[in-house]
Design goal:
The protein has about 400 residues and is α/β, with parallel strands linked by helices. It has 2 domains: about 160 residues, Rossmann fold (3-Layer(aba) Sandwich), CATH 3.40.50; about 200 residues, Glycogen Phosphorylase B (Rossmann fold, 3-Layer(aba) Sandwich). The protein has 13 helices and 18 strands. The strands form 5 sheets. A 6-stranded parallel beta sheet has the order 2-1-4-6-7-8, with helices on both faces. Strands 13-10-9-14-15-16 form a 6-stranded parallel beta sheet, with helices on both faces. Strand 11 and strand 12 form a beta hairpin. It is globular and about 65 Å long. The model has no long low-confidence stretch (mean pLDDT about 95).
């Protein structure tokens, strides 16, 4: 297969999903001898040493591009021999930095949750040569809106990072339930709180361990729409008061532990201490990196059976929350979003709590699926192939 030369105009980092998409795409392209042109400065300090070393040679070409733009006072740049990948979000909106660059071909790369695709959104999408999405859910929505050329590349995990490690007993003999993802209405942490509150009443030895901190705390304000959380989340300084929010909404302090911001080197170690991981998310535009990391570490995982989660719901591997009711949608932006039942979440946790051996067997099925089918390497291979054809 002939591989195109690509430009990547978003920030490479190992801190969040978009950054990881860029990192693993760049690593694959460099390995294949067609290194990408970086059009945004990478955050090397967020990366593991081996990643920094592999991507360091891309810095000088990046600086040359930036120097040229400064010298010519160019507000934008046409790269006639490079295909530019454009990162898109809700409403097909692109970061202003990325939109400065145009390539030989221009590829829209997207994961979105806002399902209102009106004439403006469709026109923006059709302005690209083609689109690449990260879930069947997004592909179906785009094609339904009349965008014909939509390709699919599933995100993944790094199996050298996410694998089972020995349990150290940090939380003694507690039954530990993990929940991760930045705090916002879409992620459904209010459903986690309500379901775990009921479960903890049955099993006082249970402990909810969370990685919910949000580097953009203003986006957590939409949790005020929750039908379960009676008290809104507050900020202290520039950080969300996660523990205060959990306690004020009915969790006893001894049943809750906030992990704070999680660095990548901590994730597998924390997950090794957990007996279950729960993700009753209302919507996922891609396939939920945190859920896949938990699956890759061999943790029994409970998933809402909606949107992007459908691509990782493994039969006899995960515990599906199948009772999905429509999420209130006053603005027409939440088609196919789903409200998971706290009662069904309690029942799934009960099955894991009382059937530890069966739970480990099912988790192994899910782990094998993730390690075989949902790795960053496989993502990069498919992504680059789809973008090159």
């Amino acid at each position: 297969m002939s591989i195109s030369r690509f430009g990547i105009p978003w920030t490479l980092t190992e801190f969040h999903g978009w950054g990881l998409v860029g990192v693993h795409t760049a690593l694959f392209l460099a390995e294949r001898g067609v290194p990408p042109v970086l059009l945004s400065e990478p955050m090397l300090q967020t990366m593991r040493p081996q990643t920094r070393e592999a991507l360091a040679p891309l810095l000088e070409p990046f600086r040359q591009v930036m120097d040229y733009m400064r010298q010519t006072k160019a507000g934008g740049l046409k790269l006639s021999e490079v295909d530019v990948m454009h990162p898109l979000g809700n409403q097909m909106i692109e970061d202003p930095n990325a939109s400065r660059f145009q390539g030989r071909r221009n590829i829209g790369v997207i994961a979105f949750e806002n399902t209102r695709l009106g004439p403006d959104e469709v026109a923006r999408a059709k302005g690209f040569d083609f689109m690449v999405a990260h879930s069947t859910f997004n592909v179906e929505l785009l094609r339904e809106a009349g965008i014909a050329d939509v390709r699919l590349a599933f995100q993944g995990i790094d199996p050298t990072e996410m694998f089972p490690v020995p349990r150290r007993g940090v939380f003694a003999n507690r039954f530990v339930v993990f929940s991760g993802g930045k705090l916002e209405f879409r992620k459904g942490q209010d459903i986690v709180l309500e379901g775990f509150r009921r479960f903890h009443q049955r099993h006082p030895d249970a402990l909810l361990v969370t990685a919910w901190h949000n580097p953009w705390p203003q986006t957590a304000r939409d949790m005020a729409q929750s039908p379960h959380a009676r008290v809104p989340v507050r900020t202290i300084g520039n950080q969300l008061d996660i523990t205060g929010w959990a306690v004020e909404n009915g969790l006893p302090p001894h049943g809750f532990f906030d992990l704070g911001f999680m660095t990548r080197d901590r994730i597998a170690k924390v997950l090794a201490e957990c007996d279950a991981a729960v993700f009753p998310n209302r919507c996922e535009g891609a396939t939920n990196l945190v859920a896949m990391e938990a699956m890759g570490c061999g943790v029994p995982v409970v998933l809402s059976a909606n949107t992007g989660h459908r691509d990782i719901l493994i039969e006899n591997g995960c515990w599906p929350l199948s009772h999905q009711t429509p999420t209130p949608d006053p603005q027409g932006e939440r088609r196919h979003w789903g409200e998971s039942s706290p009662d069904e979440l309690v029942e799934a946790l009960e099955q894991i709590y009382t059937g530890r051996e069966e739970s480990r067997a099912r988790a192994a099925v899910a782990m094998n699926f993730i390690h075989k089918n949902r790795t960053w390497r496989k993502f990069a291979e498919v992504f680059v192939a789809e973008c090159s054809r």
